[in-house]
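Reminder: ligand-aware prediction takes two inputs, not one.
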Amino acid sequence: MVNSDYKLKMQEHNKKQRYIQWGRMLVQVIFLLMLFIGLNKTVKPVFVLFLLLSFVFGNYFCGWVCPFGTMQEIFGKIGSLIYKKKIKMPRGLQRYLQFSRYILAIIVLTQVIAAFVDLSGLNAYRTFNQWINEKNVQILSIAIMGSFLIIALFFERPFCNYFCPEGIRYGVASFTRFFTIKRDVNACIQCKKCNKACPMNIEVSACEQVRNAQCINCFKCIEACPVAGVLSYGKVGLPKVNLPFHKK
Ligand code: SF4
Ligand code: SF4
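Here is what comes back for the chain with iron/sulfur cluster:
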């Protein structure tokens, strides 16, 4: 009886998570199509709204709206047809590499190096938007953007993880979030499936609450968790005093 109750609970959990992922994909495709038909200026205010929402609900922009994030996911799905397993950055390296996008943003902002070398091509997010709307983009920038999409076949969201200056804005804003992913530490069986599912390489299995500037609210960790109710998205207390890019 207990077993069948649990099976039922698990089935409901899986169904709900599937719907969330389908819904997320639908929203992503709608925003991508809007960009393709030239409505990018119309959706700009929506992006500001997403930034404001990040302070309370976390970063929904990167996982649900960003057209280049969507493109990387599409390439990731194509890659899964060739090779199911995705390459993961070793945890020790990830700890340091997650700062690369901040370093890049500082370099571009301060123009220290940018005064001598044009680094704008590294911003594949911008290149993608320009390429769709203006069409006159440097070949080198397109090559860099294309490289990120090729890498995305085998490595989830390479640009979002280590380079995106847009993601910083939403990620840092999300540090004050009152709603986030929570883990029931007593019910967790430490299978670490959540870590494998996370496209942003967050060690979910080590967090009580995900308070990581990399989190994009994709909910793939909840979908992957084999124990219903261990991971959930909900209200949490005020953040402890940590840096925005703290590991947990
Ligand atoms: S997938 Fe669920 S049960 Fe497994 S480690 Fe993560 S939170 Fe724990
Ligand atoms: S922690 Fe969960 S919701 Fe956040 S990015 Fe990773 S898989 Fe997505």
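The first helix runs from residue 2 to 36. The chain has a mean pLDDT of 87. We will return to this case in the review session.
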